[in-house]
Amino acid sequence: MNRLHVEQPGALALVEDLGRPGFANLGVAASGALDRGALTLANRLVGNADGAAALELLVGGFRARFEGETWFAVTGAWGSVRLDGRAIAPYTAARGRDGAVLEIDLAERGIRYVLAVRGGIDVPAVLGSRSRDTLAGLGPEPIAAAQVLAIGDEPEASVPLLDQEAAFPPPAGAVAIALLPGPRADWFTDAAHANLFETEWRLSEQADRIGARLDGPPLERRIAGELVSEATVPGSIQVAGGGQPTILLADRPVTGGYPVIAVVASASLDAVAQLRPGQPVRFRHA
């Protein structure tokens, strides 16, 4: 059996796949990888099914040793990746020999790496998914130093040959995010809607897998009353009483009591996942 011996997990290392949709009626969010495109690409690079479980590494600072021999790929954030001290090109599949040490440095662009290994990370599934839900506490615990992770059986698909030129880093400057109208857009003034699209927002330090708060001018409500809790979806932009918007992400509560002024288009959610604290954000109409 191939295994991955984690020597240093970094800031936060989680097992994630494409999540557990379909349980909102039980109060369980879909969860799953925040950067779904990075997960899918990493899995395809090593011949896995798109939804195979991989590691989501916040910021980096990760080191692990291969026990057995297998292929791996690192996508998402952009930084130095080394195998036994030798640089590995980003967004490519590489062969990890038995005893080889993989090091992933702090990210230079973006904030979440995805590390996929051929066969996937083999941990018990909860409600059909191997993802960690940080709000509900479902799924495998965060990875700890000295933990040994089993790797699943070799998939039938071979490791494909892909053109390295397709790789590109997450942007370092302002990121454009597409928005759709929210279910409570009418609760906000015309000035609030103008500010939403004209302001250069910045990601605050209060950002995790549950939600990402943005710093900027408060968004004024037209309706000041309380809202009965209603369903949320990934990308919902809730506005609390103070007027600051928060983008709800994969581990969000499935219901919320703050009005949703807009919703991030699905195609822009991966970009939100790679935002760094202080990075500027501009919204546009989808």
Helix-strand sequence: EEHEEEEEEEEEEHEEEEEEEHE
Helix content: under 10%
Query: Count of DSSP E strands?
Result: 20
* Cα shape: elongated
Can you give a write-up of this model?
This is Biotin-dependent carboxylase-like uncharacterized protein. The chain is mainly beta. The chain has 2 domains: 164 residues, no CATH class; 111 residues, Beta Barrel (Cyclophilin). It is built from 3 helices and 20 strands. The strands form 4 sheets. A 7-stranded mixed barrel has the order 12-19-16-17-14-13-20. The model has no long low-confidence stretch (mean pLDDT 96).
List the main descriptive attributes of the protein structure presented here.
ATP-binding, Biotin-dependent carboxylase-like uncharacterized protein, elongated, 8% helix, 286 residues, PxpC, nucleotide-binding, mainly beta, Cyclophilin, 2 domains
